[in-house]
């Protein structure tokens, strides 16, 4: 993976690029995540057939972090600027969680730029206690820890971390910045993520977007327990969204909302994507 930056929509956007010869896939991570969220999929071979470009959305990772501008429109224009800058007229676009919602938004508002959709664990409805379920992960935002090891211990103590493999390490290393005293601080700030939630996730007519999507799509659903003895996206809610779309496949994969991106879940996701894109 090659680390790169591009100026788009008045900000510097960081992304990583396999630079593989082949069709382009642009992937967009979850709410507080970063471009290394898909390293597990790359480890299972996703980047061998496709040129995978994984983006640090604004306010996350190594991308600029303006104080405002976190609507879905802002995020979408960042990605369109990236595509324009790289000379990509149309490609496969997908994302995990918040990134999948952004994919829905772009499929509706910029249909001519998206060829096919890869939707990882996002739907019109999530578990009714999603806010409580995400609490422990969101509590890390903007926090400083004495060392990276201390930070990693907190991560591993999360109820959703039912599985660990070293492929995850690059994601959590990219999640924090190292301070001069050896401490680490989470790169995303509470203020920016609140903007992304209130002005990005909330208020959009998601059902209208989902029902109008024309592009072929696949929804990959991690159905194991995430928190509160339940998955973040229950299978029945995922299937409900699939039924609303004109041309969407469904695939259940190993793992929960987070662990599905690694190990057997990553194998399942890559196999699902390969089968879907082969048709």
Automatic annotation (TrEMBL):
Annotated GO MF terms: hydrolase activity
Pfam family for this entry, one: Abhydrolase_1
Top-rank taxon, per record: Bacteria
Cell wall biogenesis/degradation as UniProt keyword: no
The entry's keywords: Hydrolase
Domain annotation AB hydrolase-1: ranges: 23-152
Signal peptide: none
InterPro entries: AB_hydrolase_1 (IPR000073), AB_hydrolase_fold (IPR029058), AB_hydrolase_sf (IPR050266)
Name the UniProt record assigns to this protein: Alpha/beta hydrolase fold containing protein
